[in-house]
Amino acid sequence: MTSQFHIAHNCIILDACCIINFYASGRMGDILASIPRSVTVAAYVRSQEARAVYTADGLGAQEAIDLDLYIDQGLLRVVDLETAAENAHYINFAANLGDDGEAITGAIAVERDWAIGTDDGAATKFFRQRCPQLRIISSLELLKHWAEAERVGATELEQALRLVRIRGRYQPHTRHVLYAWWQAHYNK
Q1: How many CA atoms lie within 13 A of 168 on its CB side?
Q2: Which of 130, 92, 134 is nearest to 113 (CA)?
Q3: Domain annotation for the chain: domains and CATH numbers
Q4: Could you tell me which residue, 4 or 9, shows the higher pLDDT?
Q5: Which of 38, 60, 136, 179 is surrounded by the most beta carbons within 10 Å?
Q6: In angstroms, how far is the first alpha carbon of the chain from the final one?
């Protein structure tokens, strides 16, 4: 099956939830490599929010997230607020969202006409209302794209999704457009 993933933007900026989910999967490099666009993360998100995943044993211990390998390989770039307009959006978004990482990520995406990768429900709702031109992409969309583009086997995909659930503590909402896909591959 060929992936139906399409994005007109030349870059995707990932919020902490996407970074955590991809790292948790144990397949972050492969996932990032499958994305047909440049992928970035805000410096604040890297240093302050996407800091750890849980260990696979499910006992609650944490493992630090180290993005250096993906940055060194050119699969992920780190960016920061650069313009007065980005800073103004950040202040406005932070006041409304109450979260600096999503506000910074959103401000950069809006000003640079990039897509944003996030699973945060409040941020998604806010950006859809306030910035309807912003293309919002969920972790599941990118995971599904990776699985289809790379023809990932059923066992391998199930393992990656289980690790996302255990190490990233991510479970899609039953109303997520790809919930049935998650269930079909998570429970193989």
Answers
A1: 26
A2: 134
A3: 11-186 (3.40.50.1010)
A4: 9
A5: 136
A6: 18
- Using alpha carbons, list the distances in angstroms from residue 65 to 2, 13, 51, 68: 31, 17, 5, 9
Q: What is the pLDDT of residues 44-58, one digit of tens each?
A: 999 999 999 999 987
Instruction: Please report the DSSP string for 83-103 in residue order.
Output: SHHHHHHHHHHHHHHS-HHHH
Query: Which residues, in sequence order, are CB contacts of 66 under 8 Å at separation 6+?
Result: none
User: What are the pLDDT digits (tens) for 59-72?
Assistant: 889 999 999 999 99
The position carrying tokens 């950069």 is 108
The answer to whether the beta carbons of residues 140 and 165 sit under 8 Å apart is: no
Summarize pLDDT for 60-111 with one digit per residue, the tens. 899 999 999 999 999 999 999 999 999 999 999 999 999 999 999 999 999 9
What the block records as the tokens of 73 is 């390989």
